[in-house]
Design goal:
Elements (H helix, E strand, L loop, with lengths): L3 H12 L8 H10 L4 H19 L11 H13 L28 E3 L47 E4 L4 E4 L3 E4 L5 H10 L18 E4 L1 H6 L22 H8 L3 E2 L7 E9 L2 E9 L18 H14 L7 H12 L3 E5 L6 E5 L21 H4 L14 E3 L7 H5 L2 E7 L2 H6 L4 E2 L3 E5 L9 E6 L23 E5 H9 L8 E5 L2 E2 L3 H17 L8 H14 L1 H20 L25 H26 L5 E3 L2 E6 L30 E8 H9 L4 H4 L5 H4 L3
Parallel strand pairs: 2-5, 5-8
Antiparallel strand pairs: 1-4, 2-3, 3-4, 6-7, 7-8, 9-10, 11-19, 12-20, 12-21, 13-18, 14-17, 15-16, 15-17, 19-20
Helix pairs in contact: 1-3, 8-16, 9-16, 13-17, 14-16, 15-16
Amino acid sequence: MASEEELFASVDALLNEEPHLPPPAERARLREAAGITQARLATALKTTTQSVKNWENGRSEPKSPRLDAYQRLLKGWAAKYPAPGAAPAAATAPAPSASGAAAGPAASAVETADAPQAPAVPAAGPARPPARPAAASRRPAPKKEAQPAADPRFPHGPLAVLDGDGSAYGVGGIVLDCPATSVVELVEWTLGESGLGAPRLHRNGKDSDPLIVITAAAAVKLGLPERLEGHEQRRSLRLPEDHPVIQQVAKAKWRLTQRGFGPWARIYRKVQGRERQCVQLAILSWDALDERSWPGVAEMEPADIARVLGVYAQRVITPRGSTAVSGLELMTALRPPTRAVQDPQTGNWVPGHNPGSLGTEPMDPAPPEATPEHPVVVDSGWSGGFLNEEAYQWVRDVSLLDDEECTLPYAVGLDLNTAFLAAAARLVVGLSAPDHFRAPTFNPKIPGSWLVDLSHVEVDPRLPSPFTPDGTRPTGPAWYQTHTVAYAQELGYNVTPIEAYLRRETGAYLDPWHDRLKNAYVDTLADLGVTKDLSDAEFLAAMEHHKDADPTMAAVLAAIKATVKGGIGKLRERPQGRKYKEGERWPALQRPTWRPDIRAAVISKARVNMHRKLRNMAVMTGLYPLAVLSDCVVYPSPGDSPLDFLPYAASGKPQPGAFRLGPTPGLAKLEGVQSMLWAVDLMEQGYNPARHIKGGDAVLDEGE
């Protein structure tokens, strides 16, 4: 058997006889994508090289079954890279998708000459449409990324960005011709001809609806206003019911969701059998892509917008609204509420509950888990207090600073990467309705809310209390989530709950959500040059300039972080709008994912994790924080780098249990550096240095 180098050299020598075939690097990638093993190629080369040459010259067809895959590979190359002057072969129309939407006519796709190409597919798959000429300035060559194998039902990816000239820019450099001049025509073209969409993320879930992002010029062409104006925030504005576009949609028997026609509009028809007809629209000039979640994306060229959203769709989910909405939708997509079960009486397959999910019906929280305006509170007259599991906002009393700390020259801020995401890992939460218990024995393995007095727990005053968001010591009984009470036990104190609301059915509901977002975060950081194999000094240097490496990938990273925070926040979405009255049910309560107890569990675990690190740092280094804000902590430091005060073993490795630098969720990065004098001045004025150490306002900058 030939060695790998000899084998590929032989194949390259054979194929180089045809100069119009792709270059060696491209051939190697296509060869791998086609699934041809080295052994099969070696056997084919040794026994039938002449047959292949004869076939290439049109004299005969190779008959060896071992050459089937190799033959298809060469056919794909020949079709994709025709010889100079050769007439292109007629394209075959893609097969209809499983959802009933056809993949689209061959003439609808356009590609840039130097755009990355999809792997060669067998002849049975959909053929590539021929290209039409396009202005190079409007089609900048996208940078190449590793793409998964394309779903034949959605040959053109999950989304497209529609410009005013009828060009719909898709993922991977593809450009589609969209002849639509109205919203109704756009919806019908998207479902019938575009070949857009994405496969389900879970076998019991649903395929992602195609997304069309509409530029300002395209909006005007479709009869939409370029901007939405009004007294409310633009994201809350909607087209009036008597607008011509709304009437056209209704006349064509399409429907809008309850949120109407706003920056993110979903247009659909009722499902008939297995056929799902739904299109998601996002209007750029209506602020569909919020600047804090998608920095700079709305101002990019359409091809770059498609690249940013395409990478996000590949690694997270096809956007279905704000990053907060997408974060919540991702939970449901990875934990579908139903699965197919067989009815024992009829033998038919019907939707049944999917174990580990939140089901299809909304669930009322326990009164202490709800918000004050929730019906379970208002209707029952509940006055027993509420959970207060929120992130830290704490500043140390200036009088507790000693002379040695005040003489240190720097205040250095550390920020934990996606702290809420790290807290969601292996987090057991309740899946069933809460049950009420009197004087229960505390069990750290049961998720729920406990009324317990933790005022007797002693904590160093130079550290925040682990039991309250503002870091002050509790003064009596209060409601806490399981992780908070368990931490009091970890500190060596007895806890005696007075009452509790607990859930009997439990599970790690957020695990797949955590895993997918963690991979997305780590992979995107790696694309920006920040990888796991860097030393701490190299990591800090890479993070200092990572946003400059590729603005589009930096925007994807920002969107992933916003998806984490927004998704957790959506679990307890408050009522919105001036017309709301206390005690009324607001729309978010109709979602099974309105679960304030799950949000409390994530935040409780994140805050406890932060306090544990603060305590370990004090033991290892003798340093105490100046301030904490959510996932950011500020320390006095002898130098302007975290390397000057973080604990390391004699071997040079970071000490476990304390803050550690790195690119994965839960590890730390540098947030900012200021002078110690600056930090003390803010503390004396009652401000939090962690909020401002990066420059500006960290809370506003993060969109909180």
